[in-house]
């Protein structure tokens, strides 16, 4: 559990509980929970309790973050770290929930020193060292993406500096093998898009290697058999990193 001592962990689990009906309601909307099996589901639920004790939710634009929303978001956020531990989400506490997509002001200086400003419409954002920001509408209703897993994958990627599509790898993992698998998949994906081909993954994955990592992480948990079939080398690296084999859960 990293810094969370067994004693503290046990005390937190004794003090904070999730009502069974509330958990059932949240889990019903999340296919991956049903695939876990009872023992792993119990471990996920415990992790969610610890996550909720540590992180702070805040509603923006007048939305009230209900217990059901907190549990649903937490369950999705905790799935990727089920075998890693909560320590992987260290260094920040806030989760800001907007009712729908939200606008952020961007500014960038170009090489001629001219400042360009524009608005971006986002379903989620992960700030380095800061909060995760989510659109509840996207988190609850968008069947094509999992914005929660996406943004929390960015958080993992940011643990070793600027997001670059390579989170801190475990001892025994091979950085060269990771880089080879991801570079080949990313370049092939960008190439297919450029040639106007339909892509199975969200085209947004072509924006940057860090976006590719976040998008394939979503797919790894949402549609594992398909990503294993299409990108076997990437699947293998993700399996080693997340220490899970979701395609084997059936
Ligand atoms: Zn992203």
How would you describe what is shown here?
The protein is α/β, with parallel strands linked by helices and 250 residues long. It is built from eleven helices and six strands. It has helices at 6-15, 20-28, 31-36, 38-54, 67-78, 136-141, 147-157, 175-194, 209-222, 224-230, 232-242; strands at residues 56-59, 94-98, 102-109, 115-122, 124-126, 132-135. The strands form two sheets. A four-stranded mixed sheet has the order 1-2-6-5. Helix 4 packs across helix 5 (67-78) and helix 10 crosses helix 11 (232-242). The longest helix is centred in the last third of the chain and has 20 residues, at 175-194. It starts with 5 loop residues before the first helix and ends in an 8-residue tail after the last helix. The model has no long low-confidence stretch (mean pLDDT 93). The structure holds zinc ion (ZN).
């Amino acid at each position: 559990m990293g810094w969370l001592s067994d004693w503290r962990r046990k005390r937190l689990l004794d003090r904070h509980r999730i009502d069974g009906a509330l958990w059932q309601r949240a889990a019903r909307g999340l296919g991956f929970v049903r695939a876990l099996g009872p023992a792993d589901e119990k471990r996920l639920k415990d992790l969610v309790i610890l996550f909720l004790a540590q992180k702070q939710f805040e509603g923006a634009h007048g939305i009230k973050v209900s217990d059901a929303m907190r549990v649903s978001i937490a369950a999705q956020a905790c799935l990727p770290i089920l075998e890693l531990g909560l320590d992987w989400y260290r260094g920040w506490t806030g989760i800001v929930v907007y009712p729908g997509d939200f606008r952020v002001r961007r500014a960038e200086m170009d090489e001629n020193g001219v400042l360009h400003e524009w608005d971006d419409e986002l379903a989620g954002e992960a700030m380095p060292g800061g909060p995760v920001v989510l659109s509840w509408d996207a988190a609850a209703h968008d069947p094509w993406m999992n914005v929660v897993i996406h943004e929390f994958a960015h958080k993992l990627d940011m643990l070793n500096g600027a997001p670059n599509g390579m989170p801190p790898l475990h001892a025994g993992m091979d950085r060269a093998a990771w880089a080879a698998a991801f570079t080949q998949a990313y370049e092939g994906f960008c190439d297919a898009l450029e040639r106007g081909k339909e892509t199975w993954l969200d085209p947004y994955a072509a924006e940057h290697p860090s976006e590719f990592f976040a998008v394939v992480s979503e797919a790894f948990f949402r549609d594992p058999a398909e990503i294993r079939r299409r990108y076997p080398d990437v699947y293998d690296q993700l399996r080693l990193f997340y220490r899970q084999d979701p395609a084997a859960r059936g």
